[in-house]
Design a protein that fits this description.
Chain lengths: 164, 429
Amino acid sequence: MIKGTAHKFGDNVDTDQIIPAKYLVTTDAKELGKHCMELADENFPSKAKPGDVLVAGTNFGCGSSREHAPLSIKGLGLSLVIAESFARIFFRNCINIGMPILESPEAAKEIRAGDQLEIDLDKGRIKNLTQNKTYQAQPFPEFMQNIVNAGGLMPYVKKRLAAS
Amino acid sequence: MGQTAMQKILAAHAGKKEVKTGEFIMAKVDLAMANDVTAPISIKALERAGITRLWNKDRIAIVLSHFVPAKDALSAAQAAVAREFCQKYDISLFFDEGRGGIEHSLLPELGLVVPGDVVIGADSHSCTYGGLGLFSTGVGSTDLAAVMATGECWLKVPETMKFTYHGKPGPWVTGKDLVLYTIGQIGVDGALYRNMEFTGDSLKHLSMEARLTITNMVIEAGGKSGFIEADEVTEAYLKGRAQRPCTIYKSDPDAAYCVKHEWDISGMEPQVAKPNLPDKVVGVSEVLGAKVHSAFLGSCTNGRIEDLRVAAQIIKGRKVAKGLRFMVIPATQNIYRQALKEGLIDIFMDAEAVVSAATCGPCLGGHMGVLGPDEVCISSSNRNFPGRMGHRDSQVYLANPAVVTASAVAGRLAHPEEILGKNVIPAAA
């Protein structure tokens, strides 16, 4: 069960805003986390607390394919991203590295900054404790759920290589 | 029901007779690519998983492009990670600085991607190659690591949107204008998860370079891949260049498309995307005179030889406007050399432009011309999200190379006709 405070962002937040290109000189998640969402909100890295939830509008994570973007979110210690919709490379990257995400247009629209959330990831259930509302996120297709269950893409690949 | 060319390519690479949209497949990959920014995470993922055998050392391209020549000690160390990996595994397609350029210009130029291929690249603009009649998409580093280990990539078969363009483009209208117009019409997530197929008689008037500019910006509409059927223009481009046999795929007349758009572009003027989104597209006449501090000609979108030729035609015998700076970056080492031979570099230097070695550089606010607070750039590149080229309060207009160069001369956003007059047409590509 995830519990945390919501931080709200708008539509079309691209990966440059999640982690500006000038920081793509390291692969260290903690280091990247120090600059997470810096172009969208300068103070975000100091405001966000471990376990907090990032809530965004449509097309979150569009633009560059940099895996540094979900890595920076993970490195800052955020527990989950909820969005109305995700850009496809960002979506794949999250599944592959085990960064939890949920797609729920209703929840993403109605959650306000500062709301207290409680999320059951296995069931895809989002509870807004502040507003006393519950939402059901889209389940992942079975194929992707298998990757998630394996612990990410590389463990999944290792299993496949061992089996062949 | 017929199949789109994309379905046929994916079916052939998944060992199936046909594939349905929405179906998950494991596709065999013909070429995998990563750059200096994305490869280090792939290498780390392989190491962490304890994988020490690669699928095929001759089908993995590692191209140093983003922070080369190194912008600082950290980027130098990062390039070294990629360099050592390529040495260790004897990667044959390793392009160090001085030996390559920007991957999306380089791989087509060297004939390393050919019609009928499935190409997976750890860079979002990997969709570029689809202009050659193949499937290509951008992924993150862990996906690429999996391809390096297995030669396969999991894919969800995308729906296809069909875009048909009619009419002969005007003299200053290029592939860039067609794709900007398209993104303006459908929005930055208008093609989310989808394949974009481009067709119509207008494309017959476009060079291979101009077509690659169209598929390059598929990602700016959220698209997974772009596709232009190979024809005689493609064949002429590939002659003496293609490194592997080509397979030509065509969509069936009764193939299913989720959306169809059809536009007459004969009266179209050059298009410009205003700050801060690639879909804020207007005709150039709406933004003429806008203040700009800097102009950039380069990137995987528009840093090719024909882009440099048209720029040189406009700026020849003229100067970059006072108070403005003009950055010219040929996308590959070969393009740079060709521009030297043709005297284009002299023309740029006479005009007091800055010319640099091949790099992605300023396009992503990396180095070589990063924008300061409140500065405005007109750029031939592909993205203008907030802070893309530098400071969070800087702004970017996206346009074709002729509009970028005309603006560099005028000192404000300008149409090429303002510099050359109405009766001059662009130099033949």
